[in-house]
Amino acid sequence: MSAKATVVIIEDEPAIADNLIHVLEMDGFNVCWFATGEQGLAYIADNTVELVVLDVGLPDVNGFELCKTIREFSDVAIIFLTARNDEIDRVVGLEIGADDYVTKPFSPREMLARIKLRIKKPTFFASQVVAPATYIDGQSTEPSTNTGGLISANFDYCVDGQMLGLTAVEFKILDKLISHSANVLSREQLLIAADIAPSASYERNVDSHIKAIRQKLKPFALADSIQTKRGFGYFYKQSPTL
Question: Which CDD domains does the annotation name (predicted)?
Answer without folding.
Answer: REC_OmpR (cd17574), trans_reg_C (cd00383)
